Amino acid sequence: MPNERIPHSNQPQEQECVQSQCVSSNEDMAIKQERDGSVEGEGSLPSCSSANGPSASAEGCPSEVPRRGPALLHIDRHQIQAVEPSAQALELQGLGVDVYDQDVLEQGVLQQVDSAIHEASCAAQLADAEKEYRSVLDDLTSCTTSLRQINKIIEQLSPQAATNRDINRKLDSVKRQKYNKEQQLKKITAKQKRLQAILGGAEVNIELDHAGLEEEAAGDGIN
Predict the structure, then answer these.
(1) Of 60, 213, 62, 43, which Cα lies nearest the Cα of 145?
(2) Closest listed residue to residue 202, CA positions, set 121, 130, 125
(3) What kind and span of H or E run contains 56?
(4) 3-state secondary structure (DSSP) of residue 177
(5) Contact in structure between 55 and 48 (CB atoms under 8 Å)
(6) Domain locations in the chain?
(7) End-to-end CA distance of the chain
(8) 39-62: string of b/e by CB count within 10 Å (b at 16+)?
(9) Which of 37, 113, 121, 222 is the most exposed place for a label (fewest CB within 10 A)?
(10) CA distances (Å), origin 125, targets 1, 8, 49
(11) pLDDT digits (tens, 9 = 90+) for 157-192
(12) Are 19 and 53 in contact (CB under 8 A)?
């Protein structure tokens, strides 16, 4: 029947209309970007996904942010011995290009790669050592502060310890705490010296008065 062919005859017109809308949208977007001075690649322009579907908007097609990959190693060819011009092949002489022996070239590249890996490893070790060193400085501050507080308590309890048994027991407990702190301090200072060797003798921001601590310990009767 004649009426059954009408939808089929209108379908190309609908497709042409949708396609013309997509092209018009693309042209409008391109003109707008050109006026703004921010013309981007084809990936940022809207596209028509299908003949029957709506065209994608700029919000629906976000541009991908380029990911930063690992740093590239640049080979310095000036560090690799080139073949003397007189020893080059006749067809290469006079061209002004550097010619390398394959074995020498491979060895030179491998040496630069090994050197770059070593430098990266050293940089990572230094970064870890600096972070650990800051933690050690905090431990030094905490430990020395605790020792000073313990010495003050010992100084306050010592006059009464001879006549009061409870105070004497408390004083013994405080002295054991002081001994443990002193052992902890020795470990911290040893760790500090090890990190200083890695960092190339970095100066300590917190100075410890070991002589003063020893004098206080001697005054309290602790060996």
Answers:
(1) 213
(2) 130
(3) none
(4) helix
(5) yes
(6) 14-57, 123-219
(7) 117
(8) eeeeeebbebeeeeeebeeeeeee
(9) 37
(10) 85, 73, 52
(11) 999 888 898 999 999 999 999 999 999 999 999 999
(12) no
Please identify which residue in the block is written with the tokens 């629906």. Answer: 60
Best CA proximity match to 146, nearest among 167, 169, 177, 168: 177
Mapped onto helix, strand or coil, the DSSP state of residue 54 is coil
DSSP sequence for 191-217: HHHHHHHHHTSPPPSS---HHHHHHHH
Cα 87 to Cα 83, 92, 98, 107, 130, distances in angstroms = 6, 10, 12, 20, 52
**Helix (DSSP H) and strand (DSSP E) numbers for the chain:** 4, 0
- Tens digits of per-residue pLDDT, 97-152? 777 788 888 888 999 999 999 989 888 888 888 899 999 999 999 999 999 999 99
Report pLDDT for 19: 46
Q: 120, 121, 112, 178: which is closest to 144 by C-alpha?
A: 178
H/E element, 80: none
Q: How many CB atoms lie within 10 A of CB 222?
A: 13
**What whole-number distance in Å separates Cα of residue 133 and Cα of residue 4?**
86
pTM for the full predicted model: 0.46
Q: For 37-164, where are the alpha helices, taking DSSP H only?
A: 102-161
Distance of CA 103 to CAs 29, 81, 196, Å? Answer: 56, 11, 42
Asked whether the beta carbons of 178 and 222 are under 8 A apart, the reply is: yes
Q: DSSP 3-state assignment of 90?
A: coil
